[in-house]
Amino acid sequence: MLKIAFHPAYIYPVPENHRFPMLKYELIPSQLLYEGIITKNSLFEPKKVDFQTACLAHDTDYVRHLFDATINPKMQRRIGFPWSQQLVDRERYLVDGTIQSALFARQYGISFNVAGGTHHAGYDYGEGFCMLNDQAIAATYLLDQGLAKRILIIDLDVHQGNGTAHIFQNSRAVFTFSMHGAKNFPFIKEKSHVDIELEDGLTDDIYLSLLESNLKNLFDTVDPDFVFYQAGVDILETDKLGKLKVTPQGCKARDYLVLSSCRHYNIPVQVSMGGGYSVHIKDIVNAHVETYKAAVDIYEF
Ligand SMILES: [Zn+2]
User: Fold this and answer.
1) How far is the CA of 216 from the centre of ligand 1 (A)?
2) Which end of the chain has the lower number of beta carbons within 10 A, N or C?
3) What pTM did the predictor assign?
4) From the CA of 112, how far away is ligand 1's center (Å)?
5) Which tops the pLDDT comparison, 284 or 23?
């Protein structure tokens, strides 16, 4: 059974000038349903993550200020959105979506969150439109509950998973891997356990061979019992922010490499969607839908 976290709050609370990239959160499940890849039974509505759970990966004071509307203007500017109750609620829904999806992944091998991949949120700060780091919180939740012992986070969004790296910089239980544009945001990078920096204009063949060799090493050396995959599609050549030249076929091949490795090693994987800013929204939605198709194909749903 393919279980996918989706909540209407994923879409609507976003300020007008940021709404375009957010439309995908409505269009992805619509397209999956329209194509018959999933049924309505696949979709589940998360709840709002509670304070204590959010604090598993974040500083208590930071989370308190976020939840009770006392976050300072400087931090609001770093996040990129002015504080609003609806935006904090949205973030809390998507974090629980990733936690619940991680639990479904333990049951079914793989599970998705239509939103999430908020990898710029660090231990005591929000950044780049990310307030709470969904996969970091879900990873600490699995550890806290004794449901995993060694977690690998594979972040293939074109932007470095700096927040995730910041949270787990001294962790021995969570291993962070990020492959990202060397000259892209964030301009001051954190240190993941393994960072692969990509030159502008990189094409499919080099991208995929770099990924393939690193994946093999990671699975062999880290030996994880759970994987989180941040599957941002801002690596596409059509992306306004990406600076790479990866084709839709290359992006699809990337997903096949990651998901078939998880299947091969029999390690549950939770997938969050991450970034995507192609000029035409259909390019974003199609690339994300291909990730679900890869899962349906590899896991024989
Ligand atoms: Zn990104």
Assistant:
1) 24
2) N
3) 0.97
4) 18
5) 284
β-bridge mates for residue 178, sequence order: 155, 195
SS3 category, 224: coil
Distance from residue 251's CA to the centre of ligand 1 (Å): 14
Work out the number of other CB atoms within 10 angstroms of the CB of residue 288: 27
Give distance in angstroms: CA of 176 to centre of ligand 1.
Answer: 16
Look at the chain and report how many structural domains it folds into. 1
Ligand 1 centre to CA of 277 (Å) is 8
Answer yes or no: are the C-beta atoms of 160 and 169 closer than 8 Å.
Answer: no
**Quick one: which of 114, 186, 176, 115 has its CA closest to 151?**
176
Q: 21: domain CATH number?
A: 3.40.800.20
Q: Which domain holds residue 286?
A: 3-299
- Asked if residue 205 lies in contact with residue 212, where contact means CB atoms within 8 angstroms, the answer is no
| Ligand 1 geometric centre to CA of 242 (Å) | 8
pLDDT above 80: residue 185: yes
